[in-house]
Amino acid sequence: MSVAMTALLAQSQQQRRSGAQRQVRTEPKDRRPNRVLFCLSINNPVRKIIIRLVDWKPFEVIILLTIFANCVALAATTPYPESDSNDVNAFLEKLELVFTGIFTAECCLKIIAQGFVMDQNAYLRNFWNVLDFVIVVIGLISILLQRVVSPNTLDIKALRAFRVLRPLRLVSGMPSLQVVLNSIMRAMLPLLHIALLVLFVILIYAIIGLEMFSGKLHGACYKQNHVTRIWTIHDDAQPCDSRPAEELKGWNCIGVDYQETERENWTCFDANPSDKHWRPKPGITERWEGPNSGITNFDNIGLAMLTVFQCITMEGWTDVMYYVTDSMGPEFAWMYFVSLIILGSFFVMNLVLGVLSGRAFNKWNRRCRRFCRRCVKSQVAYWTIIVLVFCNTGVLATQFYDQPLWLENFQNKANYAFVAMFTFEMLLKMYSLGIRTYYSFLFNKFDFFVVIASLTEVALTETNVMPNLGISVLRCARLLRVFKVTRYWSSLRNLVASLLASIKSIASLLLLLFLFIVIFALLGMQLFGGKFNFETSEKPRSNFDSFWQSLITVFQILTGEDWNVVMYNGINSNGGVGSLVGILVAFYFVILFICGNYILLNVFLAIAVDNLADSDNSEDDKKETDEEQEKKDGEGGEQADGAGEGGQGGDGDGGDDGKNPDGIVGENSRAASGMERSIRLDLGGDDDDIDRRMPTLGEEPEGDGDGGDDSEAEETPVTTARPRRLSELNIKEKVRPIPEASSLFVFSSTNRFRVLCHRICNHSYFGSVVLVCILVSSAMLAAEEPVNSENPRNKILNKFDYFFTTVFTIEIILKVTAYGLVLHDGSFCRQAFNLLDILVVVTYGVILHKGSFCRSTFNLLDLLVVSVALMSLFSPSDTFSVVKILRVLRVLRPLRAINRAKGLKHVVQCVIVAVKSIGNIMLVTFLLEFMFAVIGVQLFKGKFRKCNDGSKSTEAECQGYFIFYKDNDISKPVMKEREWENEDLNFDDVAHAMLSLFATSTFEGWPGLLYMSIDSDKEGQGGTYNNRPPMALFYVAFIIVIAFFMVNIFVGFVIVTFQQEGEQEYRNCELDKNQRKCIEFALKAKPVRRYIPQRRLQYKIWWFVTSTPFEYGIFLLIMLNTIALAMKFEGQPETYSSVLDYFNMLFTAIFTIEFILKLVAFSFRNYFSDLWNVLDFVIVLGSYIDIISSKIVSSKATISISFFRLFRAMRLVKLLNRGEHLRTLLWTFIKSFQALPYVALLILMLFFIYAVIGMQMFGKIRL
């Protein structure tokens, strides 16, 4: 979904680019209708005055200011529980009448000036005017209803909620916002097809969950009081398996409380009155509603779809999986949820992969004219400033909590020194370059801001004016000067210039995103303001009780962190799942998440990547331009591409050298020159492109899968003579000959033993045997039990470990003997992956000569793995930590398989190239995160510490002991010592700050860090609730810059690198991609042969089953079957269940008739040659198995009935064959699967390695 937006943006960018080639023509002014409202002509004096007023520019400005004032009034409203109010809210309600009157007057004036609806340019013919009109009418209706009925009724509150749409009226007054929003609206149509597929996946999994997990999440742990014999539910209730012991597969409440397991007996009950096996228990009056107040379950289709949607967003999906596992065992739970995440989150949400690239590079040449300017721009001056910037950075990074006094004094004196030197540099540049020249460059403007901020900070701190308000943060702005190093780093300079250029492009979108957040924050205040008050728990920090808090909560939902928890609170605050209002408010959160996270934030990324220049391509283009210029000028030499020497070099603040001085495109030149952008869209692996890439000539012709032909219409195989890709050719790998140099100074190239070793190494079975040994030994690593080292299974596995280590050692010896170790070309260690093999066998090897064993990275990998295995096997004891580490390193064995699988090896090599190419992005991201870390240290160092006794606020008071009650039970008092504790994530020094910010950039748990920062007070003093709300801006800025922008740019660079690597084999081809596609299509295209039977009766049946009415009829029956499947709910009556079972039998019979008719019409061979028909047959057959098993198989059978119920939901898959766009998306989906086996294998290998490492290192930790 994310990049379907990119596709539409690509279209709009292309239209904009083609429009830029034409001269811009101003559209004529809207024609006014001759008569409006059937009475006012164009010559009416009143209408003339109104037209002049409407066209008057200040009138539009006044309306915009009124809208802004209305937004401020809406934000100033404070919602209270139980519809309470205060004087401010009462005043704002009166002020609302004034705003409504102004907007009503504006509406009436525009209707009189433009006409109402009949004319082509009438008022209601414009979308934004329609929005204004609807808002005004709803406002008037709400005012009238307030006079008639109580203002606190639900209808009036719902109408008031529409007032939050008024900020959208700002869009009608800002053309730049209209452009962005119109582009998004045009993107809705392609997004609709992907949305249908997403809805289809959600519906299928919801119905499967309804069939398999309905009513399974209501079992909970109860305990019986031995005196009263009353059963009470556990305080922290969670699903459990209430079946008898012989059928038990889930969790049965054992170990629910380690302190009380010995004394109290917990039992799992599912108090379901509709269950005929249920016997009432004393004290159990009602059934447990389920997890998250009954919101997370599969009891009906609505809640099932909501639960599936939450899982697709990947927020809290593991909790749902564990709930299901606890209630019914892991039999189907992991398959259901893992497949949902892979299909729903990884593939369906990212079907269309778009990569946008842009180029915007500006150059200018100026020469030095003054001696003073030469001094300022000299390399000595430049590098002196760079050294000072890095020294300043180092001094700022040395700050930490509770630092010694001498270090603080040194930092202060160093600060004064740096301020003086940077001030001297600024004044010298102003004097030598002139004020106009100095201010013509971006970095000089930034230097001026930094120096003024530094002087202001020094003045404020020395005069003790506001000394404790974080003014020292201003000095952290100097850290940005470190980017001046890009002057001599061309690729990094281009990257920084492109990132800065993108800031201008996304400004309008940022404003639109802010309006979106404001609207949903105001709507959230209307729906949930003052309602997040629950008796059983504290008030959640993420609430809608004020405008500022609403903004933070909406932004948190946009990031996806704990958005489902906020939704649960919103549903419970409006009556829970038992209330219609409680269910309806869930749409607020779903719409907010989809529009904000999946659409707006991805458009943000698309525009950012559009302005990001690929540094490698830009360098190539620049070199080509230089070469062409050299040819024109008749110069034979190559002009210098980097910085000039002496007077032509330096930091370029004067701008006289051959490129932008500080590596940043100047503002004026950038504004004057149009940016040429090119957008490349990838759809299912094919590039619809404009980039110059080296082509290939198609692929092998594939079958169309549209049925087939019988003996009456036999299709002959189609062959085409054409050049093919190198990757398509199945060329037998050439055997590497024995190097002529001697091996290990002993074996010559003709030695019989060496020749024998060479033959063994190159035998076809040798590699297969080694690969099987690698896989089996890897599986044995996973089978070890780290908790009980004396387990007999571990002893058996250790014996096999000796065997496999011996096999790998023999392999290394054979290869080293055959190819030599390292001295000559072709030796074992000359290949990277052989080095991995060696590492398992030998600790290290000396790389000496070409062609030897150790000159290969893969050989060194083999050597490493075998070395570690030998050292771990022959180590005498496990007591040494080094030995334990070596044994953990045995998990590197699966990496040896990389050298044996060509496709996997190619993927790994692409990953290595990608890592090399994104070094600049990593550097910029690191520098930005480092700067935020230094600012965080200035703001929060030592302020996250607090006493574990909440009644003590300072470190001096946090002494002695205090009493707390376990589980909030006054009968369980516990004495505990007071401690002044620090949070795990803090900003006490730069290292901890960067770790905290890295956790924030992953979006995991960042709201907790945010609220700790908001509550923070002085050093040595505990936090105070909502003490510093503006501190949220620090996290918002960090998330936008790093998480929304830089991290996604990082991912984009990896994608581009993979695409470029995939095009390397076409680099010598003269055809571009469009020409290549035309040739491929011409070579692959073949006529579709349609089967038409010759027999009369068979022909009539064939005509009937292929007719349009029959197709629509089957489509309608599938939809009715879907509705019937979705009508199931937990606790339904027995009669209702019987009716649904009859419907299932009816639909099964109808689809059986369809199968028989098509089988007769197409004959056996032609019918089963179409995969869709095969799927229909499997579904019909599975449906009969489902019906028979439900009648015969008992609940205690080995095969679960729930498995066969999957065939009911599979009928929905038949819908995919009924829509052209859905078939296209399904084809793209399947193609993406075909292209990802080796990538998926690499990911699986990494998962396996880290899982085994985790098992070995953390297996004995008790949770």
TrEMBL record:
One of its GO terms (molecular function) is high voltage-gated calcium channel activity. Keywords: Calcium, Calcium channel, Calcium transport, Ion channel, Ion transport, Membrane, Metal-binding, Phosphoprotein, Repeat, Transmembrane, Transmembrane helix, Transport, Voltage-gated channel. Residues 10-29, 615-723 are annotated as: Disordered. It comes from the Eukaryota. It holds the Pfam family Ion_trans. It is found in: Membrane. The chain crosses the membrane at residues 58-77, 97-118, 130-149, 187-208, 301-324, 336-359, 380-401, 413-431, 495-523, 577-601, 764-782, 802-822, 834-851, 863-886, 907-935, 1032-1058, 1101-1127, 1139-1161, 1167-1185, 1235-1253. It is a multi-pass membrane protein. Residues 637-652 have a biased composition (Gly residues). Residues 699-715 have a biased composition (Acidic residues). Ca(2+) binds at residues 315, 561, 1004. Residues 57-357, 379-615, 843-1065, 1108-1259 form the Ion transport domain. Its main location: membrane. Residues 10-23 have a biased composition (Low complexity). Residues 620-635 have a biased composition (Basic and acidic residues). One of its GO terms (biological process) is calcium ion import across plasma membrane. One of its GO terms (cellular component) is voltage-gated calcium channel complex. Belongs to the calcium channel alpha-1 subunit (TC 1.A.1.11) family. This is Voltage-dependent L-type calcium channel subunit alpha. It comes from Macrostomum lignano.
